[in-house]
Amino acid sequence: MTDEASHLFYQTRNPRPFLERGEGIYLFDESGKRYIDGSSGAMVSNIGHSNPRVLAKMKAQMDKATFGYRLHFRTHPSEDLAAKTAAMTPEGLDRVFFVSGGSEAVESAVKLARQYALTQGQGSRYKVISRFPSYHGCTFGALDLTGYDPLREPFAPMMEGMPKVAAPATYLDRDNLSEDERGLKYAELLRDRIIEAGPDTVLAFVMEPVGGASTGALVAPDSYYGRVREICDEFGVLLIYDEVMTGAGRTGKFLAAEHWGITPDIVAMSKGFGAGYAPLGAIVAPARIVEPVLDAGGFLHGFTYAGNPLACSAGLAVLEELEEQGLIENAARMGDVLMDELRGLMERYPFIGDVRGKGLLTAFEFVADRSTMEPLAPKLNAYDRLVELAYERGLIIYSRRTRGGTAGDHFLIAPPLIITREQIGEMMAILHDALDAFAE
Ligand code: PMP
């Protein structure tokens, strides 16, 4: 940053250099210094920077019209993007509603669920069960679903009565159960919570299929996913997958849900869906949920910029690139390469207690002691230090304090899906260097 005060503020004052340009997996600041975008921003830039197809498609749309309000005109980019999204998501998810970001997508999913329940004579259902830790956004509704107390408490009370249930952080469990049994154990916690809340008051359960900012790429045991689907069906609870971070190919499938053959009732997407070219997100749902709402007078919801033709032209080009360049398959392949490299870190650095992830959404976690998994963060402020050491060396990684905000340090490594094996090597060399400096 400069010496002068800035008129701009976000969460904090921003000491970072000015961004000049991006190219593929790299970003350059104004001094010409190059950075590997090891977290795709905040898991956003899935197809890398300055993609020529996306830029060309956006420029062509700009020459025609950048905005036409959706209630005044249909547009080809929005219709085409909706059709392509429906084609790329599991069968049955074929109605698409556009938004401009992840929090908006989560809010939209919950409001659609609520209106659907009303059309079914189930007005008593309003509670949305979510998990802790979790992150679902910063608007009041999405924040109230977020299982992260330090972000929520200053704003309480928000929506009343939203129960939480533990996310399966099985790497912290010290029991004699098999992974399968652990998955089922955590799923049963959801069943208990539904019964406790009163099944006829529970509208939906919302979960990140692979944890993101909150839990650091936490994947549940395979048995968890199917059992959660069954439990939701048993009680008529709608299953909402928050795929804001995992969607659009990040985990090696278009939706993470596909890894377990799950069809959620509503899916929220953003981040990689616009891939940094446009603020864009969507909810995708089956006709059986959307049509009754439209028949009953319409969805009482919508954001002014939603589905604008410029954003949708970007989104359409992003999905075309994913498909034609085989980037989702590349995410699966390179995810395996990256995971092997991260496992190697555990051998070299005793303060790395766990590595995990799916596809190119991966993470490692710092601990003071591997046998107890006691976190390292509170003692050493490790979280900020490693991020800075990597940044100085030209690698951007993403970190959050975790475990419900009490402790823990995880670092997300989630490069653009275009990354090559050689570039993973380049990224790991910088990471090793930063970890060596941290260990000193
Ligand atoms: N859900 C998940 C799973 C996310 O990771 C995020 C963003 N980190 C959001 C919702 C909120 O998205 P946005 O910041 O675009 O509102």
Question: TL;DR of this structure?
Answer:
The chain is an alpha/beta fold and 440 residues long. The chain is built from 14 helices and 15 strands.
Q: What would your notes on this structure say?
A:
Its cofactor is pyridoxal 5'-phosphate. It comes from Maritimibacter harenae. Keywords: Aminotransferase, Pyridoxal phosphate, Transferase. One of its GO terms (molecular function) is transaminase activity. The protein folds into two domains: 19-50 and 326-439, Aspartate Aminotransferase, domain 1, CATH 3.90.1150.10; 55-324, Aspartate Aminotransferase, domain 2, CATH 3.40.640. With 440 residues, the chain is an alpha/beta fold. The chain is built from 14 helices and 15 strands. 4'-deoxy-4'-aminopyridoxal-5'-phosphate is lined by residues 42, 101-103, 106, 135-137, 208, 212-213, 242, 244-245, 270.
Secondary structure layout:
Elements: E1 19-23, E2 26-29, E3 34-36, H1 40-43, H2 52-64, H3 76-88, E4 95-99, H4 102-119, E5 127-132, H5 140-145, H6 149-152, E6 164-166, H7 179-197, E7 202-207, H8 222-235, E8 238-242, E9 266-269, E10 281-285, H9 287-295, H10 309-324, H11 327-348, E11 352-358, E12 361-369, E13 374-375, H12 377-380, H13 382-392, E14 398-402, E15 407-413, H14 421-439
Parallel strand pairs: 5-6, 5-7, 7-8, 8-9
Antiparallel strand pairs: 1-2, 2-3, 4-10, 9-10, 11-12, 12-13, 12-15, 14-15
Helix pairs in contact: 2-10, 3-10, 4-9, 7-8, 11-14, 13-14
Bound molecules: 4'-deoxy-4'-aminopyridoxal-5'-phosphate (PMP).
